[in-house]
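Hi everyone, sorry if this is the wrong subforum. Our group has a chain we'd like a structural model of before ordering constructs, and none of us has done structure prediction before. Sequence below.
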Amino acid sequence: MNKIKVLLAGTACVVALAAFVATGPVSADDSKLEQLKAQGFARIAIANEPPFTAVGADGKVSGAAPDVAREIFKRLGVADVVASISEYGAMIPGLQAGRHDAVTAGLFMKPERCAAVAYSEPVLCDAEAFLLKKGNPKGFQSYADIAKDPSGTIGAPGGGTEEKLALEAGVPRDRVIVVPDGQSGLKMLQDGRIDAYSLPVLSINDLVKKANDPSLEVVAPVVGAPVYCDGAAFKKGDEALRDAFDVELAKLKESGEFAKIIEPYGFSAKAAMSTTREKLCSAK
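Answer:
Right subforum, don't worry. Here is the predicted structure as tokens:
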């Protein structure tokens, strides 16, 4: 199994810029895939949110989304994958600016995102969850519950689905706390700096399992919150690359290899195969 290299902050920008300059401008045809083959790797944006994506202390990247991307790019003749960690709100701008070749990070499909990027067919599906203090002292079951509580605060990834759901439910901006990663959200909740921390169900369960803290409680799924699916996101104009990715993704699903990759992480292959990009991108 190939090792995925992680490029942090400045290093990521320097390497990405060098690769972009070296390959020249990207056209709208299949030359993008040929460029990646010649380059020897594809640059993917990820988060550090298990089980979607995970970065170990030694810099190794795993998680369901990178594992699927690694296998598909390998089948397309792209030998390696280079990952850079990004906040969700910065992923699409980074893709549009040419700093990434794809985003494989649990970036759920939404109509506005579908208008900005070229998504693959669905890869990972999940619902939303709250991490709370044991006993759920404020009785939060939904984002609307937090909005109704005049002192209720919620932590969520910046630019992520959970932040948007909280704001749309009426939680004031000053009570939606942007949290950079899972460990930070956990610590803020434990310290009483937020009343709830919101992430997808699988991510929250992974965080709780590792924390092994009996003072915590999970509410899942969040009442009124939709179920989402992600896909690999590509820059507009790279539809030929996206289409090639989709062909190999379909083969993985049909052969059963897709299930073997994602189900050990807790995801359902059946859920991803039960819907389509078209349905998800048109959902309201």
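For your construct planning: Confidence is low (pLDDT under 50) at residues 1-28. The CA atoms of residues 6 and 83 lie 5 Å apart.
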